[in-house]
Amino acid sequence: MHVQASFSRLAIIVLVLCILSVANSMTADRTNDQQDVPDSLTIAALTAREPAARVAAVQKLADQSVLARLTAHDESREVREAAVARVTDQAVLAGIAMSAGLDVAFSAIAGITDQNLLAQIAERTSDVSVAAAAVRRFTDQRALERVAWSTADAFVREAAIARIANPSVLADIARREPGARIRQRAIGALSDPSVLAAIALTDASAGARLVAVLKLTEYLKAADQSLLSRIISDDSDVGVRLQALKYLTDSAELVRIARTAQPWQLRACALERITDQAVLVRAVETETDPLVREAAVGGITDKAFLMGVAVADKEDLVRGTAVRGLTAPPDLARFATTDRSEYVRETAAYRVRDQRTLSRILSRDAAESVRRAAIQNVTDPSLLARVAESDKAAAVRRGAAVKISDQSALTRLARRSTDATVRAIAVQKLTDQVVLARVAESDADPAVRVLAVARISNPSVISTLVSSEQTTDVRVALVRQITDDAVLARLAEGDRNAAVQAAATRRIVDQPTLQRLAESGEHADVVEAAIARIADPSVLVRLATTHRRWEVRRAATSHVFDHATLLPLAMTDPSDAVASMALARITQPSVLAEVARTVARVWLSADAVRRISDQAILADIAGTGRHADSRAAAAKRIDDRAVLEALIKNDLPWSVRLTVLDRLHDAAAVVDAVWNSDNERERIAAVQQLVDDPTALVKIATAHPDAGTRMAAFEKITESSALLAIAKLANYEDVGNAAVAKITDRAALAEVGRSAAEPNVSRTALKRVNDAATLADVAKTATNPLVGIAAVEFLADLAAQDDSRLIDIARTAPEDAVRAAAVERIRDEPVVARLASTDASEQVQLAAVRSTFDQVLLADIARTATRDDVRRIAIGRITDKALLTGLSGSWRPATGDARNEAASRLAVLQARDLVDLVADGSVELESAGSDIRTIDVRVRRRDPAVVSLVIRAGTYFLSETPSVQNMLVRRSVIVTFDSNEWMQVPVEAACANRTRSIPTARDRFTPSRPANQLLLENLMVELDAFEFGYGAEQAAVWIATDDADYEQLGLLVRRFQFQIPGGSRVIDFDDAARAMWICDRVGIDLERKRIWGDARKILEGLTPTCERRIRLWLERRLGKSKTDGLSTPSCGPP
1058: which residues sit within 8 A by CB, 6+ positions away? Predict the structure, then answer.
């Protein structure tokens, strides 16, 4: 685990160790690393209680290691700043910049002049603001250009751009950079007026134009009036035009703009620049836009005119601006106290100085904003005190309290105010120690007590309070006032509260006490606070190496500088946190190399490698290191070609070998690695190196069996011909579709659609063609029916109002499947009906008859179609009894079967109803459950005169068990009697109570008609007349009877026998859309149903197989389509 790299903000003061270079050579006697016993100056800098005392000591201190500790650990910013100001060692400053808080990091960078160190900071720090500060110290223009072009973070790049002096480089960035923010920064750094003028006039980006105009006007003062006029009149962006207008000086042009320009912002801006009173007065009198009038009023100086506007204008905004121009106290008092508008009263109140008027406002005005404005000008102490105590608005009370200086009034507020913030304001101004003590002891708000404690100077009061106070924050504030080491030690060692212990520890000066706390403190905060104040290095080493608790060892390690101590800690300490801290303190390359080569922790080894730049050491790690990741990291940092060539001769892991090959630019070996390595990470790493071999990348992208490797290769390709090849040749959908997404040429997309090796890639390409003529051509010429059908589908979506191309395809395409797909999407029913009767293809005829809904046209198909199955389907879709009567009685002799079909269909519509026959006793019935789709009905006649009956769609079978679903008949059934025996009749049904149990053979039902539910009956008749499919039909019933939403429709799932709970939902997005379509057709108000809340989700989830007219209808209902005539389906199913 590598989380320990973030344990402390000083964790990588990688630097601080460099300060020991004077006496820390690894070949010297280790005794030379021992530091002297700390002197009084060091102890004072580390342990003095008051920041001022520590600052005074720091200002005399020269010990770089102690100064480094202070910059990292001291809680006072003043001390940290003073310490960093005394550091002179460049490496130490670099370490501070990369690991300390931002407050001293910037100060450290300001002291660094070494360009290499600045570059390292910019490269390695994780804080972009620190990196940017380092970049701002660069003097090397080439380094700045490199950062401006290649660094990932925009903030750092901006810092570099600001330092670039070469105008051609800046112009190049402004021209080529794709990111708007960086472009604008580069434009802002330009100083050539002609270049800026060209950008201001012609750049496509409004942001870029605005920056150019800003630079020309506000910084260079170089924009001529003709350029500004041209921008104002021609630019499409209001912001750009306004910026130019701010610097237009031509009076006549300003007047013209003020009178006629659009939008209103331009007129308002022009009026703000005009001083001619007549023009301004005319604008107030004639302008209809209140914001423009307000701009004009702001420039008028005539008090009488302003008074008239303040009284008569209909807009409060304009009246308020007029009041702002008044100066007479009576006028201001009048508006502040009597005006109907809160805004006008507030504006006037801000300008009132008369204390009696202000008192009246504060006493009587109900608007808080007005009273808040009035309090700003109150000087009467008694009025301030009254308002601070009693005003009902907190903001007004607090505004008054801030202005009070009288100690008696402050005392009263501190003791009596119900507003904690008011009490806090008063406490911060109080000087009476008795009152402060009383507040510190008894105020209900801990924050107020803390403020009081901070102002108490009496030690005995502090001691008393600290023993009686219960709130942690208050006790900590009290501890910060204590100076007695004995009291502090007692609190640090024995207090029950960890925060109080830590606060006391941070005040202790006595070194033995601090050592004792470091060794035995129970809480991490206490231990760290104690260690931070220990001045003896030998004590820190002992704690870092021998203490049983890792928190203590890590805290002590953060203050150790001895490499002989740090190395074993990094290598063997059982705590990752301690090891990470130790490594962060090591600076000597040979010691870092030892860690990188041999340490057991992989992440620690890699961290050590990133700290090494010596080529020989890196080569040794890459060749013989313990971990492949750190070996590869080492190889990546090698620049010396001779070292790399020697290294590649060794037996290396793939990751290391690939890295070396990349450094040597050996493309053939890299390609071999892509195809032969068993490790996906290594394959992808190899692909990343194939920058200059598009042929190899195309082959990998189209044919490599591993998806990650394919996509890695694809992402390296940008050339259009290569993308086309991938889209056509790819054996895998993922990369093929990704290539199609990058192709914009219509002809190329059509080519992919016709010939792609992967069918889904072909569909994706055709969907992106977005041209009706091209899609029609593909549909008529495609040799693959699936391609032609996809082209028809997308053509239909594209040409929703024009059937001409679809009709042409239906008549002339060579593939029957393509012609049938076109027929299903034609809206002209007479054309479709003719195809149903006359087309030579059975597939086309069947598609045509199923796409015909008009009853007369269906009857015509039944008369004229050449195929029996087509005639049979047409008859089955007719509900008009007159048409059926005609068809059954006057038929040509050759079509007797069809005549019988018509007669049977008519019989269904005319037969006596089961419910009526059961009710009058003519028929006896038994009905039982079967499953969610059917009811088992047994029926026999009692009256011999009953020859037949119909169980009509819409018949309600009511369950005799309340917990079992009621059922609705979906298909009408004719029962013909030839005896008085029982007859078994299975009836197709739908569940009408979604949450109840599914019927079983034990459940019994009684037939009836839905009471007062005409829409439900109409729905079931619709389902009977047309085949919609079970999922859509059940969904329609649940929408009507149970008001089900899409999630609730998912209750119905499909499972295999013996399958554990789960399964796939039966009613999908397509079924839900069909159900909504059916309900809308029969008059059910969908927008009052829960399903309407899911309509957009359903539309977005429709599959390519969903019928076109369903999609178009739903888009229309949702307002997403401009297609007319589809708000309600005309008849029949899609």
Answer: none
